[in-house]
Design a protein that fits this description.
- The chain has about 120 residues and is mainly α.
- The protein has a single domain, classed as Cytochrome Bc1 Complex, Chain D, domain 2 (Orthogonal Bundle).
- It is about 45% helix and about 0% strand.
- α2 packs across α6 and α4 crosses α6 (about 110-125).
- The longest helix has 19 residues, at about 1-20.
- It starts with a helix and ends with a helix.
Length: about 120
């Protein structure tokens, strides 16, 4: 009986840990995905804003935090913090996640590309 209880606990804990852990992306592959973003964004420390804001250190920052960039009201008033989950939703369909955003990009279709891009953003945070 004790052995069954321990196995059940281990299985439950393993499932809980698996559901709570984000999939790790490949930062090198994410750098390639970022090429789609480069026409509007920079990622270097102290990089310039372009059509879109500089994204260095974006993970964990509040939305609309890049100095000197004029954000949409939707972004400024969103109250969003750029977590992996928020970025995943935003990068999937930006205008669905944040109606009124100025970002014209339609989104990434492949979950793996999003995971890789987030890994690249994390590496540059």
């Amino acid at each position: 009986m004790k052995k069954i209880a321990l196995m059940a606990f281990g299985l439950t804990a393993g499932i809980a840990l698996g559901l709570g852990t984000a999939q790790a992306g490949d930062a090198a592959a994410g750098e390639k995905v970022f090429k789609k973003c480069k026409s509007c964004h920079t990622i270097e420390a102290d990089g310039k804003n372009k059509i879109g804001p500089n994204l260095f250190g974006i993970i964990g920052k509040a939305a609309a935090a890049a100095e000197g960039f004029k954000y949409s009201d939707a972004m400024t008033e969103s109250g969003v913090t750029w977590t992996e989950e928020a970025l995943t939703e935003f990068l999937t369909k930006p205008k669905d996640f944040m109606p009124g955003t100025k970002m014209s990009f339609g989104g990434l279709k492949k979950a793996e590309q999003i995971e890789d891009l987030i890994a690249y953003l994390q590496a540059n945070s």
